[in-house]
User: What shape does this take?
Amino acid sequence: MLTICLISQGRPQLSDFFDSIDSIAKFEFVNFVIVDNGAIETHSKTLKKWSDSHSNSVYIRREVNSTNLNHIWPEIKSHLADWVVFPGDDDRMILEGVTEWKLIAERSESANAIAMSARILNEDGSASGEVIQPPISEINASVSPLAYSLHCPPFFWPALFIKTSALGAKFPVSRYVLDWSISINLVMAESYLTSSISSIEYRRHSTQESNLVSLNRKMFEGIYHLDSFINSDLFLGWVTSKSEIDLLSFWRSVIVFPPLYGDPEMSNILLFGIARQIRASVHGPRLQNELLLTLALRLGSLMHDESVKETLEIADVQTSSLGNLRIEDEESICPILQGLIPRLRGVDNAVKVRVSCKHHPKRDGIHINCETYSNLARRHALDAFVRDISLSLESKGLLAFRISAKERKLILLIRKYKKIAPTSLKRLVGRI
Assistant: This one.
C-alpha cells in the first residue's frame, strides 16, 4: 500500500494537483492523507472537499501553520500505509510513475526507498522539457554514495517513495534540510533504488519557499545540520563499521565532491569534522597521512616530508613521513636545490611541480632564486623553498590565496584612497 501525503497551506494550483491524482485515487493500493496546514478558508474548503469525496482519504486540519514535521507527524503517522510519498501542492503527479513504483517495490521487497525522476514545469504549468533524474543515479561506481549525499541531496524529494518503517520518530526542524537529512539516512542504510521514470511534474515558480529566503540562510541551516550529522553517533557507527579501504574510498570521494555543494569555506569546516571522526576510529598510517595532507592542501598548505613529522600527529611517522609536494624532473636541477629534493618525495597524489633557477634559465616551471638558500641551514632552506613554490602557485590561482593581517590593512588603505590616487599608480596596479 502507498500513502500519498499532501501537506498544504493552499496554493492557486491546488485544483491542478487534485486533477492529476483523480485517476490515481482509483487504485486499490493507494490511500491519501490530506493535511490542511493552516490554509485560508478558500483553500481549506478545496482540500476538505476533495478528501471528503474519496473514501480512501483522511483529512487533517491544523489551525496554525507549521513547517516543523515533528509537529504534524504524530497526527499523520497512524494513517500511513507501508510506503509514503510527499508531493507538493503546486505539482502534478503522473499515473505511470506510480504504477512503475509499484512494479519496482514488488520486485525489490528489501528496498527502503525508491527514487523516481521528475519532469519540470514552467510557472504557467507548461512543460519545460527538462527531466531531473535522482542525482545519486548519475555518479559512477567509484564514488561513495554517502560522500555524494553530503555534497548535495541525493534524491528529488517529491519523487521519493519511502518505506514508512524507514522513517525515524524525529526530524530536523529546518524545512530546507528535512528532505536532505532523511535522504542521507536512507543512503546510509544502502537499500534504495532509482528509476528514470518520472512520477511527478514539478513546478518551478517565484513564490516557492526556497526562493523567498537568502542563500546565506539556507547554507547556514545546511552546515548546521550536516555538522550535527557528521558529529553524531550514527555517522561514527557507520565509520567504525567500514574497512580502511572503504574509508579511503569515502574520503577521496568527499574531496572530489566536497560537502554542502562544495562551498569553499563551509565544506572545509565539514571536511575537518569528517576527518576527525575517521581519525578517532582508524589508526592506519596510510589513511591518517592522506586525511591530514589532503586537508592541508585544501587550505593551500604545501608540506615537505620533514614538516609532516613536525606538524601532524600521525601514529607512525617513520612510515608516514611523506608530504603533499613532489618536485619532478629533478636531474637537471642545480646542486643547491638538488640537496633539498630528498625531502620532497611526496605521497602518490602530491602536488607535482617543475622548478627552474638561474643555472637553467630556459627550462619551464616555477623560477626559483636558488642563491637565497645558499646561506641557510638545510631545514630553513627547505621551508623557504616550499614557501616560494606556494607563493607562485597562489599567484596563479592554483592554491588558496591568503593575506596576512598587515596585508589586509594595506588593501583597506588602498581602497580608502583609490579615488584620489594618481592615474599612473592605478595603471601600475592594474598591470600587477
Summary: The two ends are 68 Å apart (CA to CA). The chain has four domains: 2-209, 218-319, 325-395, 404-432.
